[in-house]
Design a protein that fits this description.
Length: 102
Amino acid sequence: MKNVVLSVAGALLIFSAGPKIAAATSPLTSFQQQSEQTEKVFSGTIIKSGDEFMLSDAANKLSYVLDNAEKARQYEGKKVKVTGTVNIASNTIHVESIQEIA
């Protein structure tokens, strides 16, 4: 009886993990990854948080980690337009350029 219960429990565990694995390789996920690589323009204020610089978008109540502290450092506290690609999983913008806006 124990073996049957353990076998059923093991099978359920495998089946419950199956859809999650399939979803990770679904066309929708591939589309999301491609859209993450599209260059976009973000606007907000550059703020420093610990050792990182972030783009704070108060209007949309969002903030993103900027992956290039050297580019961001000179704009700390200023309103800017950041062009780059976003990694949604890590909430990080790969910075291509930063421009101050009025």
